Amino acid sequence: FYFGPNHFKTLKALDKGRDEKWELHRLVYLGWPLIRWINQFITINVFDWLSGWGLSMGIVLLILTIMVKVVVYPATWKTYMSSAKMRVLKPKIDEINKKYPKQEDAMKKQQEVMGLYSQYGVSPMGGCLPMLLQFPILMALFMFVPSAIELRQQSFLWADDLSTYDAIITFPFHVPFLGNHLSLFCLLMTVTNILNTKYTMSMQDTGAQPQMAAMKWMMYLMPIMFLFVLNDYPSGLNYYYFVSTLISVGTMILLRKTTDETKLLAILEAKKKDPKQMKKTGFAARLEAMQKQQELLQQQRQNKK
């Protein structure tokens, strides 16, 4: 029997000098293999280092959040610049849409759009890879904070215990999917997520197409769904997401103000004129080849008729 804290390093130390390993540290769930590796060798060590300063756990989480944002900033910048390039090219995309208004010309329209991206050296998938690279780091914190026993009975601001929810309102009844309380950090996280979504959507013209309008409302619905999902989670986790989203909003505003889109368009125009920059990206080249093949098959079917 083991009677003691469910602390990763404490449990791992029990195996030192033993022939038969107990591996009790695996009782501390840190996520899937990659996520667990990040938490075991990076997150826990950084968290312990910050905790050693004698700061409150709320400040430790704040500093940890800032450090994470600094680490993922290159990917954030790459994603933003990819979005900015697509935005400055939108007038040219609109011209192509007007050129091919009919549904049967959708293949030609898509092919011309991809040709435009190739000419300007822009990849429509350019912002996806940086976002995917951030995912393991963000998930690592999602798995680590609820399992951190150091947060137990540690207060911060109005939260009496960062290891459990910070109920600002307790209902005399049970609300389906929400519970009998409302957590303030979770509510603040939801509000900042909605503001972040609103600001992000304001930088993108979703157009008048029904599917784009539906996607827009889905983007607003996601933060509301997270309110129901995370309301019972530790206040330390919701506090982390709240601060993280605030920093994200600030970063987007700063990038928007410091990015000269007129200059960016001029750079893209210069790339278009430079033959060395005319080489198609791998994704664009493959997609264009697939479109040509589909167009050829469609013509063959029409000829048979």
Automatic annotation (TrEMBL):
One of its GO terms (molecular function) is membrane insertase activity. The keyword Chaperone applies. GO terms for biological process: protein insertion into membrane; protein transport. The gene is yidC. PANTHER family: CYTOCHROME C OXIDASE ASSEMBLY PROTEIN COX18, MITOCHONDRIAL, OXA1. This is Membrane protein insertase YidC. Residues 58-256 form the Membrane insertase YidC/Oxa/ALB C-terminal domain. Signal peptide: none annotated. The keyword Cell membrane applies. The chain crosses the membrane at residues 53-77, 128-149, 169-196, 217-233, 239-255.
